[in-house]
Amino acid sequence: MSAEQQYLMLPGPTPVPASVLRALATPMVNHRGPEFKALLEEVTEGVKGVYKTRNQVVIFPAAGTGAMEAAVVNFISPGERVLAVSIGVFGDRFASIAERFGARVERLSFPWGQAADAEAVRERLQADRRHEIRAILVTHNETSTGVVNDIRAIRAAAADHPALFMVDAVSGLGAMDLQTDAWQLDVVVSGSQKAFMLPPGLAFVAVSSRAMEASRACTNPRYYWDLQSALNYLGKGQTPYTPALSLYYGLRESLRLIDAEGIDGVIARHARYRSMVRAGVKAMGLQLLASDEVASAALTAVVAPPGLGANRIRKALRDRFDVVVAGGQQALDDVIFRIGHLGYVRDLDLLAVLAALEMVLAGLGQEVKLGAGVTAAQRVLMNEEGR
Amino acid sequence: MSAEQQYLMLPGPTPVPASVLRALATPMVNHRGPEFKALLEEVTEGVKGVYKTRNQVVIFPAAGTGAMEAAVVNFISPGERVLAVSIGVFGDRFASIAERFGARVERLSFPWGQAADAEAVRERLQADRRHEIRAILVTHNETSTGVVNDIRAIRAAAADHPALFMVDAVSGLGAMDLQTDAWQLDVVVSGSQKAFMLPPGLAFVAVSSRAMEASRACTNPRYYWDLQSALNYLGKGQTPYTPALSLYYGLRESLRLIDAEGIDGVIARHARYRSMVRAGVKAMGLQLLASDEVASAALTAVVAPPGLGANRIRKALRDRFDVVVAGGQQALDDVIFRIGHLGYVRDLDLLAVLAALEMVLAGLGQEVKLGAGVTAAQRVLMNEEGR
After folding, report:
1. Which chain B residue is nearest to residue A16, measuring alpha carbons?
2. Nearest CA in chain B to A101
3. Backbone torsions φ then ψ of B88, nearest 5 degrees
4. Does residue B213 carry a pLDDT above 60?
């Protein structure tokens, strides 16, 4: 079967709705003209809605990692102390970028598969009586483990410590609640290829006025990622250099879809996916990496049964049923596989994928009752609908 | 009329062929899977063909300015001396990026509308007996003035000076000859929204092994733009972070179109556009900013008649005929307008645009013989075809 018919169950890139794909094919316009100005202003407002913010939002032509780099180089100067809270690969990446640009990074790491402990953050920040820590880096949804951090609690733990609170919400924004303004998040980065239901290539940065104030003193050099320059141009309906126009067209359409459903409806839908997939996988007798309390609504990390490598399961899913799931990263390679349920996914897709997983496990000699996982997920779905 | 029906005569974004627009709408695949590996390898080879190089080529999800920043941060350390040859806005931008990242930039600037003098470059480099200059920055096609530099002659003038030779070919590559290997160009950057006939959002960097060797000693911090990391991932058919997949699909299609025509056919076509537009504009009695010897094949900068602002002409072209041309930048604002003829343009489009310009000028009270410009361009076209 061709790649066009795959079940793409990744934590990004995620499936793109047909109307968004069609929007990508819109002809070009002048990026210094009135059509683009209207488009830029419309999508910027729409992205703010997803962020639940009135802060400024800048859109870069970049991958999500670019927005993480922008967060570092605009706000953290070489030699400054940074507290990097990490629960996996992407928490480590945020810390690594800060280190690369000269920050003195102190890592507060938690075991993979667990969430960050807000109390530990509180203790560390309370011990920082001289306020040497200038920024706190936290991951919203940790894509490598399928764990979501309680950003609200961690932000509350930071209390009135003056460090900038910076959140990597690349894979979590839109899939799980994140309230930029209500929770007082200074810098929140995200990307297009996750809950925004777009192809990769746009990166978003929401920034508080307090953070922009702090950026003036930041000595890290920046040109492409210069937020002040981007905001200056945004004020006249432009970007400092050529924007990724096609993806803006797609973004306009995907924001319309999100708006029609309502952002809280989108978040509820992802919560339902989480319940369905977890119930289904548990009913097959498989272990989940994350406990229910901290489980991501964007993806589910499944531990392969003893003696059966996760990559063998992935290969069978792909070869037999064109179901594409992600593998484990670094120490979790071949230990877990990750089912993405993020963005443009349908309930029945999840039932189909669970059915495929049952057949693959049975084919690999596991004791699995065919239909057990599907039925468990169906029950979740029917209960939800009964509400 | 809707924006979809515009004559988009800009030096970028340029019109995108329908088959490329359709390719953008291809569904997503796993960027860590076999389909993307094959795609990445195919388009990287294709881009090398346009560059006329066997050097390594890296594709970033970024605007062309990002590739310029990548050229700076991978090869130029803070405090190092750089010779920036500038003939306009984009030459200045390359110099500014190098300055922003700590280089001691010496500008060798030439009046706007003129090309760089290779002899002046030779003299400056010969005077640098201690080889303190570590990099030479040169613009191929200067988009702000419609002037093309003789890269071959300037490179020859640098002779055996060990400085890295770095070329901003964002708007020129594919429209005018550029021989990366034959001319021994160390670093050549380009972008998707010009002669590649794609939307903006991909940036290219071709890099010699000598330059990659030098990059190991470069102390500028880099993460997103790290070429060594990109090359390591490229070796296994991947990218360090999520690639802009849709634009890769488009690139595969646009490379097929370029391959069908042949890169030298594409370049000859652009040379014909230059001749047609210049002949047409001259026949209307207008002045051109650049002389014939240094005129760009990608765009033509036209000086507005005395007493008639260039922006008034632009507005009339747009309002009456949906012809979108670019204005002048900085000191040339309202002095010139720039007709892009780059990428997916047809001969008859140029005749139509010249006809519109005649009517607009007449409407604004200029003495213009209707049909004079069109006829002059027709003659060029017929002569070319007679060959």
Report:
1. B27
2. B221
3. 170, -160
4. yes
Please, which residues 309-368 of chain B have a Cβ atom closer than 8 Å to chain A?
A: 324, 326-327
| Domain count along chain A | 2
Does A178 lie in the same domain as A140? yes
Confidence at residue A166, expressed as pLDDT on a 0 to 100 scale: 98
Give the residue from A260, A278, A294 where a domain finishes. A260
CA distance B281 to chain A (A): 22
Residues A185 and A275 in one domain: no
- Provide the residue type at B336 as one letter: I
Per residue in B153-193, pLDDT (tens digit) is 999 999 999 999 999 999 999 999 999 999 999 999 999 99
- Is B240 in the A-facing interface, judged by CB distances under 8 Å? yes
B228 to chain A, any CB pair closer than 8 A? The answer is no
Q: Let me know whether B115 and B204 are in one domain.
A: yes
Average pLDDT over residues B305-319: 97
Same domain, A163 and A306: no
Which regions of chain A are under pLDDT 70? 1-4, 386-387
User: What sign for the dihedral angle of Cα B76, B81, B85, B89?
Assistant: positive
Q: pLDDT for A104-146, tens place per residue? A: 999 999 999 999 999 999 999 999 999 999 999 999 999 999 9
Range of the domain at A348: 3-12+262-386
Which of these three, B205, B240, B260, is where a domain ends?
Answer: B260
Nearest residue on chain B to A14, alpha-carbon basis: B28
- The DSSP code sequence of B369-386 is -TTHHHHHHHHHHHHHHH
Question: How many of the other CB atoms lie within 10 Å of CB of B351?
Answer: 18
User: What type of residue is B45?
Assistant: E
Q: A256 and A269: one domain? A: no
HSE-up of B230 (CA within 13 Å, CB side)? Answer: 25
Do B139 and B249 lie in a common domain? yes
By DSSP bridging, strand B141-142 and strand B147-148 are: antiparallel
Task: Give the residue ranges of DSSP H helices in A108-147.
Answer: 118-127
Closest CA of chain B from A9, distance in Å: 9
| Share of residues in chain B with pLDDT > 90 (%) | 98
- Sort strands A104-109 and A81-86 into parallel, antiparallel or unpaired: parallel
